[in-house]
Recover the amino acids of this structure.
């Protein structure tokens, strides 16, 4: 009589959406025992939420989009119940000194944009076939968008916005950056989005902040037997002698734990993983980590002692005379009226960790945001009663031209190590939304066979090509 093999133990690094989604799927499917390690005190990562000024706030602007895989959306609805609400989008873009509705609306564009811009767009449409037949210069973020959209939209919106978000000239950015970050990368797609906005111009949002999605996955995973180690920092991921198993070493407040694992699934930045793996990867792999660059971001929260600042959920600022790229009002995402006497604005300011902005004091950052708002024609009703900042060192991947080489080396190395799987937004250095990260998590569990082995061929041949088609929804 044969005995049922013991379920493998999988240790998951990182408690963002990808990590928590994988933990729940593993224990729910019964395929493995799961231990998740997260250095923060709460799950969510950049997609998490926190309490301040009587509100649940996110790390910048987050939405759950209607493009979410139906099975994943069904799970989120089941986990959150009535706490997941459907909201209409009310965004605005500052374009040529005018506020234009976002997502774009045909009548609004015709009413607000000047004749010069409209004529430029018409000219770009007419010359589109010629541009596509004779592309100029080496392929880059700039060349792809110029070829498909023309100079008017590029020079008025995408190029200045790119310089602010990624801190590099559009010509220095990879063409992949355009394909992953610009969902309306052709005139025809732009027109379709104006006529028929994705999700009919609506989005999903949890009543208790965007982080409630990841928290619900974590709670459900814990309820089904997954072990969640919060506040623990992984210091080493080492092979256990000549075997195919692993030992993950984590520390918290001076205490050290060694956690055995049959497999390690990592959603932390692949650069960090390579540096903490023991035995270390070849020198060329460690050199490749130095060429993978992230854009940092300072989030500035202003508490205003008024019930609501505006009806707009997010303002976008492509102009380069304004430091922030987006200003959001969390109350307009959840639809709550609480707290009744105050609201919070969140400004997103991209930078490098070496920039003076990164270490600027909270009050100075608050003053900078107030000045930016005044410059854009947004007047604060009164001075903020409090200012808070949060800093994200790895907010966005920067796809400089040629980044594919060093990232490819890291990717091939991680794929070649038995019992090691890398996925998620940070793990795969990807411009992805939360629903993309959850899709990766579900895909990983789908590739885990009933005997505990991982179907690498299915992962590489079926799912990785799907991940490559993911385009960020803004």
């Amino acid at each position: 009589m044969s005995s049922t093999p013991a379920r493998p133990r999988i240790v998951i690094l990182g408690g963002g959406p990808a990590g928590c989604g994988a933990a729940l799927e593993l224990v729910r499917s019964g395929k493995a025992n799961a231990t998740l390690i997260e250095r923060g005190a709460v799950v969510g990562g950049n997609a998490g939420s926190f309490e301040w000024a009587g509100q649940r706030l996110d790390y910048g602007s987050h939405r759950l989009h209607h493009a979410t895989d139906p099975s994943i959306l069904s799970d989120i609805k089941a986990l959150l119940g009535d706490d997941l609400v459907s909201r209409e989008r009310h965004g605005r873009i500052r374009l040529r000194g005018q506020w234009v509705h976002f997502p774009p609306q045909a009548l609004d564009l015709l009413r607000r944009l000047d004749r010069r811009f409209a004529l430029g767009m018409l000219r770009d449409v007419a010359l589109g076939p010629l541009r596509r037949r004779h592309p100029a210069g080496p392929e880059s973020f700039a060349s792809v968008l110029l070829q498909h959209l023309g100079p008017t939209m590029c020079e008025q919106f995408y190029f200045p916005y790119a310089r602010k978000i990624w801190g590099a000239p559009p010509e220095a950015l990879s063409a992949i950056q355009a394909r992953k970050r610009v969902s309306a990368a052709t005139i025809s797609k732009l027109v379709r989005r104006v006529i028929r906005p994705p999700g009919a111009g609506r989005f999903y949002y949890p009543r208790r902040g965007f982080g409630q999605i990841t928290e619900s996955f974590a709670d459900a995973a814990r309820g089904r037997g997954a072990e969640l180690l919060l506040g623990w920092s992984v210091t080493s991921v080492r092979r256990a002698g000549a075997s195919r198993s692993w030992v993950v070493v984590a520390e918290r407040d001076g205490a050290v734990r060694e956690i055995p694992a049959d497999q390690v699934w990592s959603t932390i930045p692949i650069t960090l993983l390579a540096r903490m793996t023991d035995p270390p990867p070849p020198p060329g792999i460690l050199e490749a980590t130095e060429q993978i660059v992230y854009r940092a971001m300072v989030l500035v929260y202003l508490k205003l002692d008024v019930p609501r600042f505006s009806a707009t959920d997010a303002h976008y600022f492509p102009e380069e005379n304004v430091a922030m790229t987006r200003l959001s009002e969390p109350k307009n995402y959840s639809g709550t009226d609480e707290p009744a006497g105050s609201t919070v604005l969140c400004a997103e300011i991209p930078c490098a960790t070496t920039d003076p902005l990164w270490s600027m004091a909270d009050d100075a950052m608050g003053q900078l945001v107030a000045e930016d708002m005044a410059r854009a024609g947004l007047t604060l009703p009164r001075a903020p009663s409090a200012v808070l900042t949060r800093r994200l060192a790895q907010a966005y991947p920067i796809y400089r031209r040629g980044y594919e080489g060093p990232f490819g080396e890291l990717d091939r190395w991680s794929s070649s190590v038995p019992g090691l799987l890398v996925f998620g937004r940070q793990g795969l250095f990807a411009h992805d939304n939360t629903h993309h990260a959850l899709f990766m998590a579900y895909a990983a569990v789908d590739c885990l066979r009933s005997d505990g082995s991982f179907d690498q061929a299915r992962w590489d041949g079926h799912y990785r090509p799907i991940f490559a088609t993911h385009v960020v929804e803004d």
In short: The CA atoms of residues 133 and 172 lie 22 Å apart.
